[in-house]
Amino acid sequence: MDASTFNWWPFFYGAIIFQGVFLGIVLLATKKGYPTANRYLAAMMFIFSLALVERVISLSGLYQTWPHLLFVSSPFWFMLPPLYYFYARSFTGQSVHFSPIQLLHVVPVILVVVYFTPYYLWSKEMKLIFIQDRSLFYNHEESFIYSSVYYIQSLGYLIGSIFVFGNYGKQILSNKWLLLSYSALTLYVLFNTVQSVYYFLTYENLFDFKLWGTPIYAVVIFSLAYFALIKPEMIFVPSWKLWQQKNGRLSADEMDNIITSLRKLMQTQKLYLNCDLKYSDVAAGLGISVRSLSDALNEHAGLSFNDFVNEYRIHEAKQFILKGKLENETMLAVALNSGFKNKSSFNRVFKNQTGQTPTEFLQSSSHERAFNVAL
After folding, report:
1. Which residues, including other chains, have CB under 8 Å from residue 284's CB and lie 6 or more apart?
2. What average pLDDT values come out for the chain (375 residues) when binned by 10 residues?
3. Count of CB atoms situated within 10 Å of the CB of 210
4. Cα dist. 366→332, 361, 362 in Å?
5. I want to staple 338 with a disulfide (CB 3.0 to 4.6 A). Which of 33, 108, 149, 317 is the partner?
6. Alpha-carbon distance values, 148 to 44, 55, 160, 182, 218 (Å)
């Protein structure tokens, strides 16, 4: 085959899909950074990869074999913008509650599915005719409306995400890596919006990306994943500058800031539920060195790392017991669900911190609840 006529685009897009799936799997498996936020980022990787499958089919000419996959990827593109926002909220410690009103996020996806349903129901012959000459079916106004809905949706969620970073991420985003990435993505979408309007008015492209638009988009969102996995400290950098400390010592204010951020990290991300949680994981999440974290805990809070984490685990276990959830559970289940590796360490730490064994605490709390009911 002549190298000058070799179509390498399907392989290039296929590599992008592979990279997206790989990053999604690693994000789900890693304990670095914020695991909850990483799940939204992983979903972003998977959905983006699924959206590209149809592109590979088109570029490789496989539509002739699988014509029924026509437009299957369209709804996936409309799933991505809400994930931008969910990731931003989760990363900055804001809750992402799923309630009936959250169904509004999927309205654009539903509308796209409804819009393309007639195309999905076409016969194989009709789809092949469409694939061979799309100009026979092209509607300029409909195409513009479809693009406008996507770009408006994307801009709305991206601007909302930037607002979240600006208002809730000040203490963990002094390096602005996420804000910069989201801003770059916003500019990219904004440019495509302008290009769409220009094409609608002139029937010409303002700038011909050819097939490079999607790889550019991939670079931006993959950079989020790479920073979250490889260099989380480049994202999770606190507002104080630890490298400017004199004589390598933390001031009282700096240690207080670290403890405050550490407590927020524990409360919002519940890292203590990870039984294998390490100093390095938490330090990376805060964007500081292990030594700085150790100094803040030992000198300012007067606690070792294990004692600090176990306080949260014991509180979790006590809440589990007090809420009467032990009817169908064992103490071993309480221990594991609270972040302990085994029952023996759970019993020992529980007795050290409360003066009672878990069973004694259960009995006393049961008596107290019975007394309150009697009253």
Report:
1. 32, 33, 232, 233, 236
2. 70 94 90 76 95 92 88 94 90 72 90 94 90 85 94 95 75 59 90 92 85 89 80 45 46 83 84 84 74 83 88 89 65 87 90 88 65 35
3. 8
4. 19, 8, 6
5. 317
6. 21, 21, 18, 20, 21
| Structure tokens given for 227 | 């920073």
Q: Which two tokens stand for residue 131?
A: 């694939």
| In contact, 9 and 37? CB cutoff 8 Å | no
Q: What are the angstrom distances between the C-alpha of 220 and each of 105, 135, 215, 274?
A: 23, 32, 9, 30
CA of residue 176 relative to chain centroid, distance: 17
Residue with tokens 């294990």: 306
